[in-house]
Amino acid sequence: MNRHRTALSVLLSAGALVAGVLTAATPSIAADAPASFRQQHTQGFWTAERMREATPLDVTAVPGAARTPVATAAAPTAVAPTAALSAASPTAFPQAGGAWTGGGAVVKTSGRVFFTMGSRTASCSGNSITSANGSTVMTAGHCVKYQGAWHTNWVFVPAYNNGSAPYGQWSATQTFATDQWAASEDMNMDVGLAVVAPLNGQTLSQAVGAQGVLFNGGYNKKMYSFGFPAAAPYDGTKLVYCSGNSGKDFLLTKDHGLGCNMTGGSSGGPWFQDFNEATGLGTQVSVNSFGYTFLPNRMYGPYLGNEAKAAYDKAQTS
Question: Domains along the chain?
Fold first, then answer.
C-alpha cells in the first residue's frame, strides 16, 4: 500500500493500493444504496499475465467525507472454524512483515482477489470463512466497491502462486458490503464479502477449508494479519504476514491497529486472533484496510461489529 491514510488527506488502504494512482472525490451515493451486486464475468478473462499485471488499488479519503457512527457493539458472536483451535505458539511473534513459511490452513484459505475497476485491472486479498453456503470470502469494502461503483469480473484465487491458481479461480456470483460502506464508504465499516460459485463440483470451503469468524470480539488482542502485498518492496507472488499486539486507533476511526509494513494488494487480507502457527487456523476479527501517511509501518482494520455481522449474514444465506 503506498502508505496510507484516511480522512484528513489520509490515504486509505493497505491493499487495494498502488502508488498514488487515484485521487478520489467524495462519493456521491444515496443513503439507501444497495449493499450487494450481482456479478457477471468474461470467461477466461483472468490469464496468468493479467493476474501478474493487476494493479494494487490506491484509494484516498477526502477531508469532510461522510462518516457514520462507529461499529455498534454487542455480545460477542463467534462462528467456529473448520477445525479445533489450540493455543497459539509464539515463534513468529511479533513480526512487522515477512513471508509466511509456516504452512497450515491459512495458506489455502487466504488468496488474492482480482477484479476490474472501470477500464483497469486491480488486486486485493481475501480469505475463505465458515458460512452456511460454504462459499463466502471476506475482504475489504473497497475491494468490492469504490467511488460509488461495484467492481466487476471479481474472482478469488486461494493459495495464489505467481500467476498460478492451484485450487482454481473462484468467480463471485454476488458481492456485498456493509450498508454503511455501500452508502458513504465510511472507513469504520470497510468490510466486503463475496459469494463464489462452486468449482468442479465443490464449494469453496470443501476445496480449501474455511476460517472461523468473531464479531464484537473486543480490542487489544494478539493478532496476525495476512495478505498478498504487490507494491514495492513486495511483488504479490507470496503470502506475507504481520503479528503483534493490536491497539485501538486513537485518530480518525475506531479500527484495530497493528505494526505492519504490508503494501498495496494486501487490502482485504484477514486478521486473526487465537491464531495457531502449527495448524494455520485462527478466528478472523478484521481485514487489512488502511494506514496513515504520517504513521509508516502501521496497518488498520475495521472492528467487526453488528454492521459487519449483518453483511455476513446476508452473504452466507444468499
Answer: 11-24+48-66+74-316 (2.40.10.10)
